[in-house]
Write a structure and sequence with these properties.
Keywords: Ligase
Radius of gyration: 23 Å
Enzyme class: ligase
EC number: 6.3.2.1
Number of helices: 11
Organism: Streptomyces albogriseolus
Protein name: Pantoate--beta-alanine ligase
Strand order of the largest sheet: 1-4-3-2-5-6
Length: 332
């Protein structure tokens, strides 16, 4: 399948529309993660619909000293990958097309959620991101727009903007795509030297360590609940030769774990990576409520996001995974 390259909104609006239009927004330098988004969009749009991929390196979301000038621009390869993945068109407007007359005086504010984590590390980033997303939603007029879970805070803010400002577009999140060794796919991975890439694996390894600690904790809690915490428990466990193991399970399940243990397991990996050559320089490790990206407490129940951001050499990378915390009641 060959994707048509479009440079202006007028050209895009001139295309006949019969079914649903699904849009995948990118800054180019497409990789398999983007391809997964495009293939998902193709399924949602169906054979009668249309998939449009936007390629636009948005200057508003780059702060002073960030990599706007060196951000990879590979439009020819992007058009080829987009078409191969199922896109009908690639909309690659110029800065003047998106921002006629220069930088916009009126912008979208990301609010308090936009000042946390990534927003604190990159002031103004989310205001610029939401402003261009709003512009591109108006310019492309989709029925559905797809974004990756790797940028979890971005996805949460886009969903909030669409809901709060009545955009009338369905926002779909698509799971993070990883390389075989666990590294989350990112256009910035190409900046990494072989040694830096080895260090960068600590981001995903830290998240997996937190996830595995949580899974082990939940398994121990489930095991501890199998027999009531009474004399009958001890007798029953002794009868099957598991008294020590089950006692250990019960002790761990009821006294250690939850969000604090998840954070500790992840931080241990990151602390070790800080001693590598080259070292990993941590920006943040956070375990947050995805509704507002505030840190969760030890008694939290429900969906959460374990997120990390760090620098390796001159390259800044982010990653996250979802976790679910059940009720912490008595494990008896």
């Amino acid at each position: 399948m060959t994707a048509t390259l479009l440079r202006t909104a007028a050209d895009l609006h001139a295309r006949a529309r019969t079914g649903r239009r699904a849009v995948v927004m990118t800054m180019g330098a497409l990789h398999e993660g983007h391809a997964t988004l495009i293939r998902t969009a193709r399924k949602i749009a169906g054979p009668e619909g249309e998939v449009v991929v936007t390629v636009f390196v948005n200057p508003l979301q780059f702060g002073a000293g960030e990599d706007l000038d060196r951000y990879p621009r590979t439009l020819d390869a992007d058009v080829e990958l987009a078409g191969r993945s199922g896109a009908d068109a690639v909309f690659a407007p110029s800065v003047d097309e998106v921002y006629p007359g220069g930088e916009p005086q009126v912008r979208i504010s990301a609010g308090p959620m936009g000042e946390r984590l990534e927003g604190a590390a990159r002031p103004g980033h989310f205001d610029g991101m939401l402003t261009v997303v709003a512009k591109l939603l108006h310019l492309t007029r989709p029925d559905v727009a797809l974004y990756g879970h790797k940028d979890a805070q971005q996805l949460a803010l886009i969903r909030r903007m669409a809901r709060d400002l009545n955009f009338g577009v369905e926002i779909v999140g698509v799971p993070t795509v990883r390389e075989e060794d666990g590294l989350a796919l990112s256009s910035r991975n190409r900046y990494l030297s072989p040694a830096e890439r080895r260090t960068a694996l600590a981001l995903s390894q830290a998240l997996f360590a937190g996830r595995d600690r949580h899974a082990a904790q939940e398994a121990l809690r489930a095991r501890a609940r199998e027999v009531p915490a009474t004399r009958a428990r001890a007798e029953a466990l002794s009868a099957i030769g598991e008294s020590r193991a089950a006692a250990d399970a019960h002790a761990v399940a009821t006294t250690a774990g939850g969000p604090a243990a998840v954070r500790a397991a992840a931080r241990l990996v990151l602390d070790e990576a800080a001693r590598l050559d080259p070292p990993l320089r941590l920006d943040y490790l956070a375990l947050v409520d995805p509704s507002d990206f505030t840190e969760i407490g030890d008694d939290f129940t429900g969906e959460a996001v374990l997120a990390v951001a760090a620098r390796v050499g001159a390259t800044r990378l982010i990653d996250n995974i979802p976790l679910t915390f059940g009720p912490f009641g008595d494990a008896s």
